[in-house]
Amino acid sequence: MNTSEHPSSPLFSSPSGEGESYLARLNPEQRAAIETTDGPLLVLAGAGTGKTRVLTTRFAHILLTGRAKPWQILAVTFTNKAAREMRERISFILGEPAEGLWLGTFHALCARMLRRHAEYVGLTNSFTILDTDDQIRLLKQVMEPWRIDTKRWPAPGLMGVIQRWKDRGLTPERVTDAEESDFAEGHARAIYAAYQTRLRQLNACDFGDLMLHVTEILRTRADVLDQYHRLFRYILVDEYQDTNTVQYLWLRLLAKRNGFPSNICCVGDDDQSIYSWRGAEVENILRFEKDFPGAEIVRLERNYRSTQHILGVAAGLIAHNGERLGKTLRSGKEDASGEKVSVTGVWDSDAEARAVCDAAEKFRAQGHSLAEMAILVRAGFQTRAFEERLVQTGLPYRIVGGVRFYERAEIRDALAYMRAVHQPADDLAFERIINTPKRGVGPAALQKFHAAARSRTVPLAAGTQALLTEGGVKGKMADQVAKLIDVLATTRDILAREGHVVAVEHLLEESGYLEMWRNDRSPEAPGRLENLKELVRALADFGTLGEFLEHVALVMEHDENAGDAKLSLMTLHGAKGLEFDIVFLPGWEEGVFPSQRTLDEGGLKGLEEERRLAYVGITRARKHALIYHAGSRRIYANWQPSMPSRFLDELPDEHVNRHTEGGTQRRGLNLSDSVFESGQPLTSRRRQDPLLAEQNAVSFQLGDHVRHPRFGTGIIIGADRHHLEVVFESGDTKRLLSSFIEKL
Ligand code: ATP
Ligand code: MG
Q1: Which domains are seen in the chain, by residue range?
Q2: CB 3.0 to 4.6 Å from 719: which of 215, 284, 295, 692, for a disulfide?
Q3: Element (H, E) at 46
Q4: Element (H, E) at 473
C-alpha cells in the first residue's frame, strides 16, 4: 500500500529526502534531463518512467539554481489536478508556498492571458466562458437564417467541425476554400464566422476560443509576443504527445525567442497519445528536432510504477500497434514481482459490477486504502452499474470528472443566475433564468424582449428592462420579470457591500429559485436543494464571484478535492498521468472496448488509438491490474450478448491469469462451460474462423438469435463441431444439434 501522504499522485512517492537532495533521488538519465537546463529538450519515454517527476524537479531546479524567478517559468499540465499536484510538489522542494506561477492547463493559462489582452480580439476582460450547452444553443440561433436542414446537419455536428478548425488554429478568415465541404450545405465557414461575431457581441468565448484568440494575438501583435518572450525564460510541457495544432503553434510562438535559446522542455510518450479525436497530433513529437534545431533527446527506460507482470502485459499489448517509435521499458522497482494480471469473464454487466465491488472489498479487508483503487471505464455509460452497486454496498467512491456535479440542471440554473449578475451582457444566462422558476414568459414574450434588445442594441436583460419601464408588456408576467431584474440589481449591490457568498444566497432566495425546488414534490428535489447548498459552500473557497465562475468553467474536467479515502470511478481518458495500487478495468468487450464507433468507422488508426488507451489503463496500476469482460450487457433497455475484446487475445499468457467467475451467474447457467473451453475464450477462435458452425447451409455466429421448436427463442453462446450452445429465454442452457435450430 502506498504510504505517502498524497495517495494516487504520480508526483509523491516518498515524503522524505527533499530539499537539497532532490537530485539524488533521480536515476542518471533523469538527472541528465534536469541538468541540461538550457536549450530545447525532449524526454521521450514510456509510462511510469518519471517524466512528470523530471518536469517538476526541473522546475524546482531552475528556481533553486537562480536561473529564473517563479513567474518566469511557463509550465503546462494536462489536467487541473496535475497542475495542483505540481504546485504542491514544487512548494515542497522549495520549502515555501509557490505563488504567482504560470502553471496550469493550456486552457487555464490561455484564459489568464486572454483576460490581459481581451481588447485585441474585441472582448472586454470580464468575458464569459460558455459551456457546451450554451455553445450549442447559441449555434442553433446563429444557424437559423440559413434555414439548413437540421435533421441532416444537426448543430452538434457543425459544432464539431468548428471545434476542429479551432484546434487547428483556424479563425474564420484562415479557413481556406479547400476546407469548405458540403457540410451544412456548404455554409459551415459562413456560420462559423457568424457564430464568432455573435460570441463577441455577448462578450463571451467558448473553450476553443481561449487557445485560438491568444494564439491569434501572439501571431499578430509583435509587442505582446515580445512581452512574453521577455517574461518566460523556461517552458515546460507535460503529455506533449496530446497537444493539438493550435497548442503547438502557441508553444512554438512563445518558445522561439529571437537571439535567445529556446528553453523548452517537453515530455511525452507516443504510446499514450489518446486524444486524436480531439485534434491532437502525435506528429508534434516527431517534429520536435526539426522545430528546435540542436534539441537534445533523452530516453528513460526504468519504470518505477508497476510490477513486472503489469509491464509485461502492457508491453505485449502495445507491441500489436504498427506505428510506434518503440521504447524499452524495464522495471526500476526493487521488489517488482507481484501477481499476474487477472482477466475475468462474468455473466453480465451487473455481475461485473458485483465482481469488481467484491474484489475492492476484499482488497480493503487486506489493508489497501480505497484511495488507492480505481475503476477505469471506456465510456461514461458504464459507470451507472458501478455507481448503483457502490451505493448498495456502501463503499465510498467518487466520480472523477467533476462534470457530473456541474452538469446537473439545478447547478446550471444557479450558475446562470450568477452569470447574469456578474455579466449583464450574458444573454444566454438571462434567457435560461427568465422563466425558471415559471414567470409566465412564453415564446412570444421572449421574442418581444429580444426585439427590444436588438432595436436598442443592448443586451437582452437591458432590453427587457427598457420594455418593462415603457409599459411595452403588462400584467402579472411583467411584474414578475421586473422583480427578477430588481433582484439581479440588488444582488449586485450586496455583492459590492457584503461579498459574493451573501449575495448569491440572496439571489437564489429572492429570485424564487430555491422556493421552486422546495415546492417541488419529485423525489429528486431534496437532493437538488442539497446540491445547491453544496454550490454555495464551494463559493466560499473563492475570493470573488468572477474567480468562482472562471473556476467552474475551467475545472469541469477531472477535478476533485482530496478528502477521505474513496474509490475512484473515471474514464480511461481521465486517468492519464495518474497511478493507483489497484486498477479495475471492466468492459473489455468488442463494441465497448474497442468502442463500437471505432469498429464501425475508426479503421486501423482508430483501433491503434483504442489499444493505446488500453495501454494507458494497464500502466496506471502499481500492484494489481484486474480486467473484466461480461457475456452480455444492457444497452438502453435491451440485453445484448457481447464478445470478449480482441485486446484480451493480445495479452501475453505468461503474465495473465484467465478465469471465469463461478457461482454468481444468473439462472443457473454455467458460463465457464459455455463461453470458455480449456481456459481459452471460444470467441478468440472464432475470429480466425468467422463462422462458428455452418450446417444446412446456414451459418451461425455467437450472439445470433435463434428459435428451437421445443425450447423457444434464445441466443447462441457457444458451439462445437455439430452442436450449438444456446441460452433460452427460460434461463436454461442447452447443447443442441444445429440442424434443429432456426436462425431468426
Ligand atoms: P506517465 O507516462 O503515466 O505520465 P510518468 O513517466 O510521468 O508516467 P511519473 O508519474 O513521473 O511517470 O513517475 C511514476 C512513478 O515513479 C511515480 O510514483 C514517481 O514518484 C516514481 N519515480 C519516478 N522516478 C523515480 C526514481 N528515480 N526513483 C524512485 N521512484 C521514482
Ligand atoms: Mg506523467
Answers
A1: 21-112+213-300 (3.40.50.300), 128-202 (1.10.10.160), 309-396+564-661 (3.40.50.300), 407-551 (1.10.486.10), 682-743 (2.30.30)
A2: 692
A3: none
A4: none
**What pLDDT, on a 0 to 100 scale, did the predictor assign at position 403?**
43
Judge contact between 210 and 121, C-beta under 8 A: no
Please tell me the least confidently modeled range out of 128-142, 205-219, 343-357, 593-607.
Answer: 128-142
Pairwise CA distance, residues 34 & 325, whole Å: 23
Which position has the higher pLDDT, 494 or 713?
494
Ligand 1 centroid distance, CA of 16 (Å):
16
Q: Establish whether residue 2 lines the binding site of ligand 1, counting it when its CB lies within 6 angstroms of any ligand atom.
A: no
Residue 517, SS3 per DSSP: helix
Ligand nearest to the CA of 13: 1
User: Rounded to the nearest 10 degrees, what angle do helices 525-539 and 545-555 cross at?
Assistant: 120
Report helix, strand or coil for 73.
strand
From residue 736, give the alpha-carbon distance in Å to each of 643, 717, 725: 21, 12, 6
54 C-alpha to ligand 1 centroid (Å): 8
In Å, how far are 131, 163, 230, 430, 548 from 135, measured between CA atoms?
A: 6, 11, 36, 15, 20
Q: What is the pTM of this model?
A: 0.72
The pLDDT confidence band at residue 335, using thresholds 50, 70 and 90, is low
Q: Is 51 annotated for ligand binding? A: yes
Please give the average per-residue pLDDT across 179-194, as a whole number.
Answer: 84
C-alpha cell at 85: 499536484
Helix (H, G, I), strand (E, B) or coil at 373: strand
Q: Are 619 and 48 within 8 A, CB to CB?
A: yes
- Nearest residue (by CA) to ligand 1, atom 11, is 50
Query: Of the ranges 124-128, 454-458, 476-480, 583-587, which one carries the lowest mean pLDDT score?
Result: 124-128
Residue among 484, 481, 411, 408 nearest 449 (CA): 481
Check if 30 has its Cβ closer than 6 Å to any atom of ligand 1.
Answer: yes
**pLDDT tens digit sequence for 406-442:** 667 888 899 999 999 999 999 999 999 999 999 999 9
Distance 213 CA to ligand 2 centre (A): 28
Ligand 1 in contact with 620 (CB < 6 A)? no
- List Cβ<8 Å contacts ≥24 apart for 682-691: 682/718, 682/719, 683/643, 683/644, 684/644, 684/648, 684/649, 686/643, 687/646, 687/649
6 three-class SS: coil
pLDDT at 601 over 90: no
The model's pLDDT over 637-674, given as tens digits with 9 standing for 90+, comes to: 567 788 999 999 999 999 999 988 753 333 333 333 33
More confident residue, 277 or 36: 36
Active site positions, annotated: 51-52, 238-239, 272, 620
171: Cβ contacts below 8 Å, ≥ 6 apart: 196, 212, 216
Residue 157 annotated as binding site: no
333 is in an annotated binding site: no
pLDDT of res. 198: 94
Supply the DSSP symbol for 65.
Answer: T
CA 73, 75, 80, 81 dihedral sign is negative
Tell me the C-alpha distance between 42 and 237, whole Å.
10
Pocket test for ligand 1, best of 4, 6, 53 (most atoms within 8 A of CB): 53
Does the N-terminal peptide bond of residue 709 adopt cis geometry, omega within 30 degrees of 0? no
As a whole number of angstroms, the distance between CA 371 and CA 335 comes to: 22
621-635/580-585 β-pairing: parallel
Number of the ligand 1 atom closest to the C-alpha atom of 9 = 18
Ligand 1: residue whose CA is nearest its atom 17: 10
Distance CA 485, CA 491 (A): 10
Is the pLDDT at 483 greater than 50? The verdict is yes
